[in-house]
Structure formats: C-alpha cells, structure tokens
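tool_call: predict_structure(chain=1)
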Amino acid sequence: MINERIRFPRVRVVDSDGSQLGIMSSQEAIAIAREKELDLVLVSDKADPPVCKIIDYGKFRFEQEKKAREARKKQHTSDVKEVKMRYKIEEHDYNVCINRAERFLKAGDKVKATVTFRGREIQHSHLAEELLNRMANDLQAVAEVQQAPKQEGRNMIMLLAPKR
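tool_result:
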C-alpha cells in the first residue's frame, strides 16, 4: 500500500535515510513525502501504530523483484528421472544404468528404477526384486531407498532419493 491507499489515522514514519520522524497522521506523512518527491510506503501493518517509510516506490519494487529473482535462481526443483531395464539385463548395460542413476542422484533428482516384464516373464518377479535390491545396494553411497521394490501391473518399481 502506498500514499493515499494507506487508511490508518496515525502511522509511525521512517525517513528515507532510516531516521524516525515519529507518529503522525497519514495525511501529514504523505505531505512530507510529496515535499521530498518520494512515496509513503506501508512497511508493517501489524505494528501498533503501523510503520510507513518514505522511499521511491519504483526503486523499492525493483529491488524486491530483484531479490525474488535471485531466490528463484538459487532454488532447485527435484525432478523424478526414470531408469528402465529388464530383469535379464547384461552386466555392461546394468553398469550403464547404475552410472546414469548415480548422475541423476548427484544432480539432486530422485530416481525411479523400473523393471518391465513381457508375457510370461512376470513369473520371475523375484529376479527383478533381486536386481532392484542389488541396484539399491550399489547406489548406497549416494542414495537412500524411498520406496522399496513393489509390483505395479507388468512393472516392478523402486524409488531412490539422494542422500542429504
């Protein structure tokens, strides 16, 4: 809220250099701000009386947006990356999957390890569970199991999260 939008009868006013001007009516504060060719901006409406500051509102808003952009730039969203394989996977292919999963985990993403079955292969779900447990064991240094291996239809799924 700025200038005339401030509806409080009495406000505590802080000058642009940070010095206290005291408690006064909002009309007086707006008049002082206009003399300095600045705006009266409500800083805290929870205080008693509410605190207003005399500053250049355009510059203030720009600084706020700049801080928000910096905060967004620094945060990392955690995605779920998937590593698919079959229970009859060869050793080299398995190592490639492990390396890919490790790279995802180090980047801060979660990994969904999926073993798919075709036709009658579903009878050998115990082999797929052994494979997923082996994968969890191999990635133990960088990952923790968030969801143990469980069967969903023709797939067996395990979820790994990066260690904190």
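agent: The chain has a mean pLDDT of 91. Proceeding to next step.
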